[in-house]
Structure formats: structure tokens, C-alpha cells
Amino acid sequence: MSDFTLRFGILTLSDRSARGERPDVSGPVLADAVKTRGWQVIQTNVLPDEPGILHAELSEWADSGAFDVILTTGGTGFSPRDVTPEATRLVVERLTPGLDEAMRAASLRVTPHAMLSRAISGIRGTTLIINLPGSPKAALENFAAVAPVLEHAIRLLTGHPDAERGH
């Protein structure tokens, strides 16, 4: 599948990073992980934990046709300001619970706190949106859990001629 390059957008959700009070660490770490796999990072952004802002950005990015996968990092826990799953649920047309289950299962092997993740994933048009935790370590662990299936998932979503090969 090396002839197939995925195009990513990465959105970091953090009130403090959006205000410039602390640097975004998770977004750049995820961008490096994406590039290491030979995929492209088309755009990144840091947003406050505001559902309306996230909803608008996710919708715009997914509808633009510029991205195959949009990763969000942050806003998936129990804090009152953690609203990423709710905003994502309003944007996606179809949920992809298998990805969520795989990420939580992989994380549970590392920490019992993984069961506190409310992260979801889903499809809007031909774009896959995946919520990841805000911690750089947890974001990378969760990304690593789903990365092996992403090329195949996007081939299926886009009706790529090779999508069914190997089934």
C-alpha cells in the first residue's frame, strides 16, 4: 500500500494552548508519527475546548476534501470542559466503534485510566475523524493502535479500486 499516501489534519483541543499559556505538545508528536509512516500532514490547528468552534472546524475540514483522516487530541476525559466527543458526534454521519474499542483495549494494557476515555471516531463523507487523548504519550499509544488499518479504511471509504484486494 506504499503508493497510497494518506492526508491528515491534526486539531489540538486545549484552552491553555489556544491562549498561548503552554505549548501544544501532542499535535507535533502526532504529526511526527504520521510523517514517520510516510503520510502527509496537510494542516494543524490549536483550538479552545469550545464545542461550537470544534464543530465548525471539523465540518469545514471534513467537507473540504483536503483530508483523509482528521485526528483530534484533547478534550476526551471527564473534565467539564472536555467536549470533543460531543462535538465530533454532531459532525460525523457514521460512528466507527471498532476503532474506539481497539484504542481503549490497547490503552488498558498500559493504564486502568484508559477506561476513563470518552473518545469516539466516525466518518463524514470520505473523511475519518478520530479523537485521541490529550497526553502526548496516550495520543501516540492510541494512534499506534489504529494506524495499521487506516490505509485500508480510507481505500474502502473512497472506493479505491484496490480496496477489496486481500479480503
Which features would summarize this protein structure in a list?
about 170 residues, alpha/beta, Molybdenum Cofactor Biosythetic Enzyme, Chain A, six-stranded mixed sheet, 6 helices, about 20% strand
Describe it.
The mean pLDDT is 95. A 6-stranded mixed beta sheet has the order 2-1-3-6-5-4, with helices on both faces. Helix 2 crosses helix 6. The protein has 167 residues and is α/β, with parallel strands linked by helices. It has helices at 15-18, 26-36, 51-64, 84-91, 97-108, 136-158; strands spanning 7-13, 40-47, 69-73, 94-95, 121-124, 127-132. It has one domain: MoaB/Mog-like domain (Molybdenum Cofactor Biosythetic Enzyme, Chain A). It is globular and about 45 Å long. Strand 5 (121-124) and strand 6 (127-132) form a beta hairpin. It contains 6 helices and 6 strands.
